[in-house]
Design a protein that fits this description.
The structure holds 2 protein chains of 2 kinds.
Chain A: H1 10-33, H2 41-49, H3 53-82, H4 87-112, H5 143-163
Helix pairs in contact in A: 1-3, 1-5, 2-3, 3-5, 4-5
Chain B: H1 8-16, H2 18-21, E1 42-45, E2 50-53, E3 58-63, E4 71-73, E5 84-89, E6 93-99, E7 106-112, E8 115-123, E9 137-148, E10 151-157, H3 160-163, E11 168-171, E12 177-180, E13 185-190, E14 195-197, E15 201-207, E16 213-221, H4 233-249, H5 259-271, E17 273-274, E18 279-280, E19 303-304, H6 307-317, H7 321-334, E20 345-346, E21 357-358, E22 372-373, H8 384-398, E23 402-403, H9 405-421, H10 440-458, H11 466-484, E24 485-486, E25 491-492, H12 508-511, H13 519-532, E26 533-534, E27 537-538, E28 554-555, H14 556-568, H15 572-584, E29 595-596, E30 603-604, H16 610-627, H17 639-643, E31 652-653
Antiparallel strand pairs in B: 1-2, 2-3, 3-4, 3-5, 5-10, 6-7, 7-8, 8-9, 9-16, 10-15, 11-12, 12-13, 13-16, 14-15, 17-18, 19-20, 21-22, 23-31, 24-25, 26-27, 28-29, 29-30
Classes of the chains: A mainly alpha, B alpha+beta.
Chain lengths: ~160, ~650
């Protein structure tokens, strides 16, 4: 049950949103460094707004962190709406969120991302970023697993935070 | 043998679809008997990695993403398992090859009954670098039909991780082909229709009319989603890369007799420059043999500290101060973990974990096994390294660099190590394994280290135990003169109490320990010429000295040391004659390997070799200086500049050298 005043504060939501985002980033970045997956949401976000690799990385991480906070609010909103939260419920939400990401969001990305090539048009001078393909498999065979796992961890952390 | 130079899957595909498979001509097959001579190779690169291209049009060596990463193409070391990327003219022969003027862009011309075409190979470089969305690395190959209707033929058979990893090639429709494996991902983009042969080879043919152009681009991505190359961008990349190299080369100050050769050598050295760190590797390859069929096969994709002073001098004397000082800065930074002791070599990022293993699944170049990656020489004791590093430090100060207080203290500590260790036998400059000796050159460089440090101390640049340094310095020299000079044979020998001569004796005048025209040096040169000289090429030491089976070739750098020595000794005619002969022996695009077979003239050892090219530059410049009545080295400045070094802030600084 969520019953203390601090649990109701915005600060609490922001702090745990940041913690959950950091843990999710650690998993995805770690997977990149280990060569397991090339999936990088910060890079994909950043290249929507910048044609410079350097600027795209910086902008991407800022947007990614802000996105983590926003989704943290959404998760907390669900907890409040249902008046229930636990580690497994948070993880389940993250798992479903991850599935949505790889089945709907990623395959749709080439059609909304201004610099992402599609399998039909090929790369032009503007559309050069590699499309993720179904389930993000273009970025590595374990990309769906890593992505869903990272999202599940995100939800799990928030679930733990609001289970007290 | 199969067109892809490959495996059972290709064989199966060939049986199932013999007509389609036969579309790729026999000429693209790589068989174990057709290793090209090392002389036939050329190098292209982007200052992060480099590709070795044969006259046949095959890229036979490429490591991605960095020059010391595992290979993706390595048919240079194994014709069937190594992998290659061939672009050539079907039914045609290579008729000429050149680098575009002032660049590292290679143009190979093929001709045959159907006409004439060129293949232009380069690794893309953009001045904007990471400020643009470009692939991490781009090997671009552009085909131009010049005359008639030549048919271009492309075969891409990637074999990641030194051929140890299985791959699958997937079509990405209009986004080309993706090569999936567990590490770095690779992509092929082309405006030529390519087909999959088996699961691991791409091939295609296209007949062109005169004036038509086609492109094929090989890229990689390590961490992030890839940036896809567009085949049509190849033209723009060619213009940008050509402009970048010409802009870089415009810094060259050398305007002497050998301007074309010197420029080619600095361009080759720049290809071995790993710009993310400033390190310069000794060569772009591993395990090209020092003797065919022998075991002297080493991985040279590392940075030897010994090269520092040679490299610094070669770059700085030709106007490329930035490259020379960047290498010195890398050296000072990267050795921090082991200072004041130095290892012999480090990787491009300064890491010391370069353990040596053998790739037993590779046959080796012309069956010269084993193929090694990593280098066990890092654990050797090579005392000459201290002298070379100190020499580089002093040289960099003379050229206007400054040292931080901690670097000044480090020099003093290094001097202490030299004082402690110079009496030990070591593995020596030639890294002979399992036979430590009192190598003369190691002692000479220990003397040189202390000599330079005492000079710096006298000028107030560093604070050291001067009396100890002077005492040890003089003791080293006395011992060298007593034990390294063999009066019976009239020569400085390679190691104390031995009788073999070693080409490193030619460097003694360069350090200042003895004059070049000293009778002992003159007689040493005579002995070296008798024992080590083969038609102008100089062996590093007499056969049998290293205890390994088989004879090796003559060393390129030793041959240039002879020119340098003769210039210092005033034997200018002989020096000039030797230099011009050596220049004529470079390959068709002006590159040298580590060694040369004295009987056949074939290149041996890793290619191209930085040490040989620095030797050429330093020798040519020294000779021209002497011919112009100047001293062979950058002139030592008077104490004026040194005296305001090591000030209250502790920065050691000298005025930049100016010609007089």
């Amino acid at each position: 049950m969520i019953d203390t005043a601090f649990h109701h504060s915005w600060l609490f939501v922001l702090v745990w949103g940041l913690i959950a985002t950091a843990i999710m980033s650690t998993v995805t970045e770690g997977a990149q460094m280990l060569g397991i997956s090339r999936m990088s949401l910060p890079f994909l976000f950043g290249t929507m707004f910048a044609s410079s690799r350097h600027r795209a990385q910086v902008i991407g991480y800022i947007l990614y962190s802000l996105g983590g906070l926003v989704f943290g609010l959404v998760y907390v909103g669900v907890f409040y709406t249902l008046d229930y939260s636990s580690w497994w419920f948070g993880a389940l939400m993250g798992f479903l969120h991850g599935l949505f990401l790889i089945t709907v969001m990623l395959p749709t990305l080439p059609y909304v991302h201004p610099r992402m090539a599609t399998d039909y048009d090929g790369p032009t001078s503007r559309r050069r970023v590699e499309p993720p393909g179904p389930f993000g498999l273009h970025y590595g065979r374990l990309t769906p697993t890593i992505t869903v796992l990272a999202q599940a961890l995100f939800g799990l952390v928030l679930g733990i935070a609001y289970a007290h | 043998m199969l067109p892809c130079g490959t495996n059972a899957k290709c064989a199966l595909a060939a049986v199932r679809n013999p007509v389609k498979f036969a579309a790729v001509s026999d000429e693209t097959r790589q068989t174990e008997s057709d290793f090209p001579p090392i002389r036939d190779y050329a190098l292209i690169g982007d200052c992060r990695t480099a590709a070795v291209v044969a006259k046949s049009g095959a890229v036979e060596w490429l490591c991605l993403p960095n020059i010391d990463s595992p290979s993706i193409f390595a048919s240079m070391l194994d014709r069937t398992r190594g992998g290659h990327f061939t672009v050539r003219m079907a039914g045609g022969e290579m008729v000429s090859r050149r680098y575009l003027e002032g660049t590292n862009v290679l143009e190979t011309t093929f001709a045959g009954p159907d006409g004439r075409m060129t293949v232009t190979d380069f690794m893309a470089i953009a001045a904007e670098g990471g400020r643009r969305l470009d692939p991490e690395r781009e090997l671009v190959r552009i085909v131009d039909a010049v005359e008639g209707m030549p048919e271009a033929e492309i075969v891409c058979a990637p074999r990641p991780d030194y051929g140890r990893e299985k791959i699958r090639i997937h079509s990405r429709a209009r986004n080309g082909w993706a090569i999936s494996n567990s590490g770095t991902h690779h992509f092929v983009h082309s405006d030529v229709q390519l087909e999959l042969r088996g699961m691991d080879c791409l091939a295609g043919r296209v007949r062109l009319k005169a004036g038509e152009r086609r492109r094929v681009i090989f890229t990689c991505a390590t961490r992030d989603p890839a940036i896809m190359a567009s085949a049509f961008d190849g033209d723009r990349k060619l213009d940008e890369t050509t402009a970048w190299w010409r802009e870089w080369l415009s810094q060259c100050r050398y305007t002497g007799r050998y301007v074309a050769q010197i420029q080619r050598s600095v361009l080759a050295l720049k290809l071995l420059d790993f710009v993310p760190s400033g390190a310069i590797v000794a060569a772009a390859t591993t395990s090209l043999p020092e003797s065919i069929g022998g075991g002297r096969n080493w991985d040279y994709r590392f940075c030897w500290l010994r090269d520092a002073s040679f490299m610094l001098r070669a770059f700085a004397d030709t106007g490329f101060q930035r490259e020379g000082l960047a290498f010195f800065d890398w050296l000072m930074h990267t050795t921090q973990r082991t200072q004041p002791h130095f290892l012999t070599l480090y990787d491009v990022f300064g890491r010391t974990d370069v353990s040596e293993i053998t790739l037993d699944h590779f046959t080796g170049y012309r069956h010269s096994a084993p193929v090694r990656i990593g280098n066990a020489a890092k654990d050797q004791l090579q005392l000459d390294v201290y002298g070379e590093v100190i020499n580089a430090a002093v040289d960099s100060i003379r050229r206007g660099n400054w040292l931080t207080p901690s670097e000044c203290r480090l020099l003093g500590k290094v001097g202490g190590v030299v004082c402690d260790e110079w009496r030990k036998p070591d593995d020596g400059i030639w890294e002979q394994r399992g036979m430590r000796r009192h190598n003369t050159y190691s002692k000479v460089m220990c003397w040189a280290a202390l000599h330079d440090l005492v000079e710096l101390a006298d000028k107030g640049v560093i604070k050291v135990d001067r009396d100890r340094f002077v005492r040890e310095r003089d003791a080293i020299r006395a011992e060298i003169m007593e034990r390294a000079y063999n009066a019976e044979i009239g020569a400085f020998v390679g190691a104390y109490d031995e009788t073999f001569v070693d080409a490193t004796a030619l460097l003694m005048p360069r350090t200042g320990i003895i004059e070049a025209d000293d009778p002992r040096m003159v007689s040493t040169w005579k002995r070296i010429r008798e024992r080590l000289d083969h038609k102008g090429w100089i062996l590093r030491y007499e056969h049998g000295t290293d205890g390994m089976e088989g004879n090796e070739g003559a060393f390129g750098i030793c041959s240039f040391w002879a020119v340098d020595y003769l210039a210092r000794a005033g034997e200018l005619d002989e020096a000039r004659a030797r230099l011009e002969k050596l220049i004529a022996e470079a390959n068709d695009v002006g590159l040298y390997a580590e060694e040369v077979d004295t009987e056949t003239g074939e290149f041996l050892g890793n290619f191209p070799q930085a040490f040989t090219h620095t030797g050429f530059i330093n020798a040519a410049l020294a000779l021209e200086r002497v011919e112009e009545g100047r001293k062979p080295d950058v002139r030592r400045r008077s104490g004026k500049g040194l005296e305001h070094g090591a000030d209250e802030e502790g920065q050691a600084e000298l005025e930049p050298e100016t010609e007089t």
